[in-house]
Amino acid sequence: MGFFSFLTQEIAIDLGTANTIIICNDKIVVDEPSIVAIDRRTEKMVAIGEKARQMQGKTHGNLKTIRPLRDGVIADFNAAEQMIRGMIKMINKKPRLFPPSLRMVICIPSGSTEVEMRAVRDSSEHAGGRDVYMIYEPMAAAIGIGIDVEAPEGNMVVDIGGGTTEIAVISLGGIVTNKSIRIAGDDLTSDIQEYMRHQHNIKIGERTAEEIKIHVGSALSELEEPPNDFRVQGPNQMTALPIEVPVSYQEIAHCLEKSISKIEIAILSALEQTPPELYADIVNRGIYLAGGGALLRGLDKRLTDKINIPFHIAEDPLRAVARGTGIALKNVDKFSFLMR
Ligand SMILES: Nc1ncnc2c1ncn2[C@@H]1O[C@H](COP(=O)(O)OP(=O)(O)OP(=O)(O)O)[C@@H](O)[C@H]1O
């Protein structure tokens, strides 16, 4: 450790559409929803992460909540910068004489354009990053799952996040085939919102729809261990009177069908483009599922039955990308060929 190392801080950031995780000294120090609340009059940030999420859908005229990322990429540059800065401040609670200079590894969707990458780099630099390295999300997920990414073997990772589903075949330290589609957890949530409006005449917000997904979301209409129905309250669209309806996992499975089929098609198309030797490795090893979407009930079974290759859910799938980004940070030199 150099004499001036106390002036440098190393952090790994999984900047996600739904959640942002920061790792520092091998520990998860921030794990918050990617949301900020901004005062419209001053344009200053008044809340961040879980606090801002509590305000979502409940704000008055002077306050707005913003999710700075949409579909895996920065949609609101200012809000993203304020969010990254605010989350980094959460780590450094004690005041310091000199703010540390930051060396960071941050992950990006594999389908990012040069402009989208530039936005991530600029936001990170404006938030205090001096050395900013970027790594593709599926590569970070593979490292986080514990795959030897440098081996001459094919491994397929499907990372279903909030905004994007990233499908990649990795071998010899590179991404051989990749497919990034903008259908993921957020789309499943809005499918549920739409379904509740149409089917039950009940108006619900994004937070309630996500709760339904987590409580009774399913990729199969027959589950071995079915969850209990979930009771949803809200205003009747026609009368504005309060109503309460029980929602079953079967109806949610039905309403998610279209989006899940699109994910299936993308996986099949990535497999189609995979060279035969690597394809054989994947059939033998199975396919790894990461990201919050991997937690959807029955998804692994549905994909295994449909594609005829076993699907394995990564350990703690919501944090696989962050874990991998943390490992890449510790081995920046070893993994330099993986960084942008
Ligand atoms: N138990 C669950 N069942 C289904 N979906 C879930 C569950 N838990 C979390 N999710 C969903 O997972 C998504 C968030 O996953 P994750 O944190 O991996 O995404 P992200 O990294 O923020 O997004 P992206 O990688 O697209 O930028 C959200 O849409 C959330 O609703």
TrEMBL record:
Binding of ATP, residues: T17, A18, N19, G162, G163, T164, E210, E211, I212, K213, G292, G293, A294, L295
Entry's localization field: Cytoplasm
Alphabetical UniProt keywords: ATP-binding, Cell shape, Cytoplasm, Nucleotide-binding
GO CC terms in record: cytoplasm
UniProt xrefs under InterPro entries: ATPase_NBD, MreB, MreB_MamK-like
Gene Ontology molecular function, alphabetical: ATP binding
Domain of life where this protein originates: Bacteria
Keyword ATP-binding: yes
Signal peptide: none
BP GO annotations: cell morphogenesis; regulation of cell shape
Binding partners and assembly: Forms polymers.
Family, per entry: Belongs to the FtsA/MreB family.
Entries under NCBIfam families matching the protein: mreB, PRK13927.1
Protein's job: Forms membrane-associated dynamic filaments that are essential for cell shape determination. Acts by regulating cell wall synthesis and cell elongation, and thus cell shape. A feedback loop between cell geometry and MreB localization may maintain elongated cell shape by targeting cell wall growth to regions of negative cell wall curvature.
Record protein name field: Cell shape-determining protein MreB
Origin species: Labilibaculum antarcticum
